Amino acid sequence: MLRSHTCGELRAEHVGDETTIIGWINAIRDHGGLRFVDLRDRYGCIQVTVSPDSLAGQSLDSLRSEQVLQVKGKVEARPDGMKNPRLDTGDVEVVAITATIIGDCPPLPFDPSGGDQVNEELRFQYRFIDMRRDEVRQRFQLRSDLQHAIRCHLHKQDFIDLETPILTKSTPEGARDFLVPSRLNPGEFYALPQSPQIFKQIFMVAGFDRYMQVVRCFRDEDLRADRQPEFTQLDIEMACVEESDVIALIEGLVVDVIRTVTGKEVATPFPSFSYADAMQRYGTDSPDLRSDLELVDVSDLVSQLGFKVFSSAIEEGGSVRAIRVPGGGAWSRKQIESLEDVVKNQGAGGLAWFKRTEDGTAGSISRFLQGEASSQLLDRVCMEVGDLCCLVADRSNKVVNGSLSFLRKELAIRLEQIEPGALEFCWVKEFPLFVEDEASGRPTPCHHPFTAPHPDDLERLEDEPLTVRALAYDLVLNGFEVAGGSIRIHQRELQERVFEAIGLNQEEAQEKFSFLLDALRYGAPPHGGIALGLDRLAMVLAGVDSIREMIAFPKTQRGTCLLTGAPGQVSGEQLSEVGLQLEESEPDESS
Ligand code: ASP
What we know:
The structure is a single chain. Strands 6-9-10-22-21-20-17-11 form an 8-stranded mixed beta sheet, with helices on both faces. Strands 1-2-3-5-4 form a 5-stranded mixed β-barrel. It has helices at residues 120-125, 127-130, 134-156, 197-206, 243-262, 275-282, 299-302, 308-315, 333-337, 339-344, 371-381, 397-414, 492-501, 506-521, 534-542, 572-577, and strands at residues 18-30, 35-41, 44-50, 68-77, 92-103, 160-161, 179-181, 189-191, 210-218, 230-239, 272-274, 295-297, 319-325, 352-357, 360-362, 388-394, 425-429, 434-436, 443-445, 472-477, 480-487, 527-533. α13 packs antiparallel against α14 (506-521). By secondary structure, the chain is α+β, with helices and mostly antiparallel strands. The chain contains 16 helices and 22 strands. It has 3 domains: 12-103, CATH 2.40.50.140; 137-166 and 193-273 and 425-550, BirA Bifunctional Protein, domain 2; 291-414, Gyrase A, domain 2, CATH 3.30.1360.30. The structure holds aspartic acid. Aspartic acid (ASP) binds next to β21 and β22. Aspartic acid binds at residues 173, 195, 197, 484-486, 529-531.
């Protein structure tokens, strides 16, 4: 037996027992001819007294941080005054009879006690050391508990856990595919799944009316802090359901797993907005409801103020929107002007602002604030004395919304509206079915092409496709989209109309999706589903800022793995086995 106890389990009741423990050396304290060693494993930490005799010929100085030490010894009570109430094992210590270094360790590349402040590249290169830290271990425990709770909840509700292929055909979620060459079929490629979308719909046709899978998905996109090229989602599909059924299931699931994993209570039903409403009130389709700040459209009023920046933005088809900042009137000019960078970074030309004072208004645009339009503006924005109003004008509504939604986030922080640990969910529904592809001007699916059009808008599918709403819904948590799904098209004819609308003719549709189109002919029930980003949900629950913290071996912004060095080159032999030849690469001018 290599160990009889873990480092976290010994208590006063074990005093007098013999024990064998194994752990990493957390800290060493010199105690005049003895060493006090804190030995740590996943379960806790315990103090061990090591004497020169117990080390079998090795000197006490050979002990170093992060070596793996096996200790056979006796559990003894710590004398009064020497107990450590901060440790679960703090009433006792192990007095070593033999202590053996069974895993040596050279000087460390970084000091693990430096926490998350240590250079991220070093942490991920030596992730095995990083993961020994308490807070990192707890994040992965939370992630594991979350998955366990999800499976338990769904299992009780008759969901069946089914797997889908990783080597497959392109699955359209709007990203680029990762391709894998096929050795047995030279010149042909598998695509890694962007999601199991089509397979889960086929499960519905097959009669597995409640499917779930915790599944890895792959999307070759440019990376941001909350994106990774491979990520895990909880994938769900249900037959014979409407939107409200999927929503009720997810609310029940989320409330239950959050209670199990964090002990927090979340109230249902979650607030819900149409996409149009969310854009109008928050400037984004993933509003952070921890803040109650809202955007107000004031285009019609400010066009009469005689301020050129405003009137020309409106004339060119854009808008002017405002955010009221309660109490912001007390902020200095410098503090207010520092907000301008936030909107400029999102493409806005600048920030206009004014304060409401006892005797009128003050600030960058106050000289334009006169007359009836001005008092209507104060009313519409609900300005009280002592408030600040920030406005953005642009001929692109996308820029106005985008910059004000970022400004809203920044204001929420400055106003200290973001309560630590708060969890604010909401649903956003009635997304457009299509968006206009900037390059081609064609409609492209806003979600994916299997999403059902809103029945009230069906007749506009051919003539005004961009006005058609979808039976699609996103779940948003603290401003992050944590889940997205839809009711699907289950009639082949309608599926073909949607393919047409995005420019896929029958032949192309058949070539790409024959297996789905065929399945839809053979008895397809109505169905819908959703996918929940597990890394992202775990990130918010763990209170960290990046999903890299929730992924054991994450990729960098450049898609590389710092631990393994992937991606890497392969031999000429491997390439020729799969029928590939590399082009001579151009010399890199930047190097
Ligand atoms: N397949 C979708 C996605 O991965 C989710 C869904 O529609 O269920 O985003």
